[in-house]
Amino acid sequence: MKRHACLILAHAHFNQLKTLVRLLDDARNDIFIHVDARARDFDPGAFDGICKASKLTFIKPRIAIHWGGISIMRAELALLKEACRGTYTYYHLLSGMDLPIKSQDEIHAFFEAHEGKEFLDLWQFKSHTHRRFHYYTLFPEGAGSFIPNLANNLFKGLQMLVGPTINRKIDFRFASQWFSITDACARYVLSQEDWLEKVFRHTNTADEIFLPTLLWNSPFKECLYDKEEHVQNSEYSHGNMRLIDWSRGESVRHPWTFKTGDYDLLINAPQLWARKFDDSVDAGIIERIARELAPSSDNTR
Description:
By secondary structure, the chain is α/β, with parallel strands linked by helices. It contains ten helices and eight strands. It has one domain: Spore Coat Polysaccharide Biosynthesis Protein SpsA, Chain A, CATH 3.90.550. The radius of gyration is 19 Å and the shape is globular.
């Protein structure tokens, strides 16, 4: 039986996270979760017995996550490293605020039909994207704090007077953070951990750049799922099989939070997962999807 590893980055909404775990609980999946070290209200004991078929692992040590920081890349690599203690056909990175919008049978059938492909949602560069990786960021964990972010911007402005100062010879690429990759690809990524740390340690928002850059400059470029067709050209992400609606997003940093009125859109979409959901905004849509996609007893034995 081919098995998949579900890798989850979580930081809050732990009751909602339980719903996601229950929907992933399947004899063909194991689940690995990294919880932000800054989440003080997290109780791993609350998840005891929640899985009937999957192995559930909360990885340690927990990393303190800062928006835009290199810490997100490090947490993703930590998830991959823990999962790669075993062997899985695919490794899927999800947020704790995601949900599947297809059954596990449909998800596994899709990857069976496309086995060997790597799933990223490649994006076109914006005019300012190159500033993230060609100019030295003094405080890479400081994008969400006023003083460090101000210092970063001032120093970056000085560098822009003389042109790019770091990473001049690398062919960078840009993509959604969320991915589904093969075992061979996952192990290749981990083999490049030192290079990734060297290149991205003093960049900004590396989580959207490190993996597409690495894969684009590797033999795995030829395995990218519809790599030419799936450059983002609509409001929905699709190359990584995630439904993410930026057209109605609350800000440039955050996509639309799905609500009960989006149910038909979600269930009829061709994608396999969607983000994001928030039980403090609309718990009803989460409950409805959970009822629709509740695992069968056969898959939880």
